[in-house]
Amino acid sequence: MTDPTIFRCPACHSAPLVAMPGTLSCGACGKTFPMEGGVPLLVADLAAHEGAMAQARAVNPDWYRTEQPPEAASPWRHHLKKRRHYVTSVLKRELAQRGRARAPRLLDLGCGDGTNLLWLKDFAENLYGSDYNPVRLARAHARSPEATLFLADILDYPAVDGCFDVVFFNHVIEHIPDDGAALATAYRILAPGGLLILGTPNEGSWWWQLAYRRAPEIRRTTDHVHFYTAESIREKMRQAGFSVFEVEHMGWGPPDWHLDGKWRQHKWVDDLFEILGRTLVPNQASSLYLLATK
Ligand SMILES: [Zn+2]
């Protein structure tokens, strides 16, 4: 199902696009955007996008192709569950403050394989997800056929200004070289008074920098180009125009990537690290969540 009213043309920035059988087209410049398996490909230059994806896959094939494990299959499943519980409690609280149980339009910006769409749908009247990787979008579409999904370049984003009430921007920003431009997009598409939930690793902290120093080969496989602290990402968000009103540190573990995944598979270990970390090294958590409005 595709709702064309939120879209704008990535080529000429006119809105809205017009839905035709099997395609979306721009009434202003006439450009048409094909659909692949029910997912519109909303990039101005599809050949260039495919070329960039092929280059990226050649450098780091695993990151671009490997299926993202569902929460229950991840070594960090207990940590991921804590993150999900935090985000769902935030959504309940913030939507209630706005007099709603569900957001009229909720976007998972960089939805990947769509593992988060599965529970985000409980908080959305209309659920949207976008990604730049068509391999992941196909999986997301199979998992959540009710969501409106589209291929997009975050630096030339095909949605109209202020159209999303909630933007969930989870573990994406650390992968984007021009993070300032990506945050500018998130700001532009968020409705005034809307909610941005941004999650990112706390990998600029000395604790996790130590983990990378001990295992430089991991750094090459993550595809991360930014290593933020709470202060550095908060400042970037402020520069993009956001009012950040909550910063949450979450998840503690040994500063060793191999041991971290091995030990924290056990719930009692993950729980113990959470208690000790929160008390002894509160700023050295593995994950950050920042809540912001516009
Ligand atoms: Zn156009």
UniProtKB/TrEMBL annotation:
**GO MF terms held by the record:** methyltransferase activity
Query: Which keywords does the record carry?
Result: Methyltransferase, Transferase, Ubiquinone
Does this UniProt record's set of keywords contain Magnesium?
Answer: no
GO aspect biological process, one term: methylation
Q: Which CDD domains match?
A: AdoMet_MTases
Pfam families from the xrefs?
Methyltransf_23 (PF13489)
Q: Which InterPro entries match?
A: SAM-dependent_MTases_sf
The UniProt record lists the keyword Metal-binding: no
Return the protein name. Answer: Ubiquinone/menaquinone biosynthesis C-methylase UbiE
